[in-house]
Amino acid sequence: MASNVNPTVRRRRLGQELRRLREQRGMTAEEVADRLLVSQSKISRLENGRRSISQRDVRDLCGVYEVEDRRIVDSLMQMAKESRQQGWWHAFGDIPYSVYIGLETDAASLRVYEPQVVPGLLQTRPYAEAVVAGALPEATAADIERRVQVRMRRQDRIKDERNPLRLWAVLDESVLRREVGGKHTMAEQLEYLNEMSQQPHVTLQVMPFSMGAHPGVNGQYAILEFPEASDSTVIYLEGVTSDLYLEKANDVANYSVMYEHLRAQALNPDQTREFIEKVAKEYARG
């Protein structure tokens, strides 16, 4: 597979185009499902990019929507073919959050609020090993290593010199205070955070305990934006057994406004570096 083909993003773009064609015909998802003798939920999953789309699905839908331009049909068929190919993460086996990895791999920018642990894109290997082992107490050593390898590979987006992911992260102070992997690991991790925060495409802020209640108290979330104007912004909410992806304009607007309040209330980047350095020294002293 060509390195620039991202199956997750292809599914989203194809789903958006199929939704546009349906709406142009003035049809509901239920009407389309009745015509094709499938469930309405299948049509919805195809349109939101959460289900793999076959070329047969595209052919049948184009028939229902009376798409006569062969160039459009061929383009959609090609997207369907690419959407069924595998991204780099599939080489590591069944990864529960593979949809998110696909989105992150193709995103132009990522805004994230983390209340518990350092974001995966900024974790050192020892810290990542300790986080995964602690979060999955029944996982085997092989499973832990596989997840850590995926996490390290994801960091290629941050280190890509030609097209790095623009990352803005607001961390609760508890992220710095939670001793993951021991004092040495924490000191090393915090020093790495400060090092990465010097990169022009990485902005880091800490939300101190002294701020009290703030817009992030309800938990972690991420906002992913994409280089193509046709790709809608995605709000990602991580769960234990399943994740939630929000794309409706109202949801995106609400979370974006909430993130602006978080950034305004947190320490600024310079204050954040000073704060992290202070805590890192506390760990280094043991």
TrEMBL record:
Annotated PROSITE patterns: HTH_CROC1 (PS50943)
InterPro entries: Cro/C1-type_HTH, DUF5753, Lambda_DNA-bd_dom_sf
Pfam families: DUF5753 (PF19054), HTH_31 (PF13560)
CDD domains per the UniProt record, alphabetical: HTH_XRE
Domain of life per record: Bacteria
HTH cro/C1-type domain span: 18-72
Name recorded for this polypeptide: Helix-turn-helix domain-containing protein
Organism: Streptomyces spirodelae
Lineage: Bacteria, Bacillati, Actinomycetota, Actinomycetes, Kitasatosporales
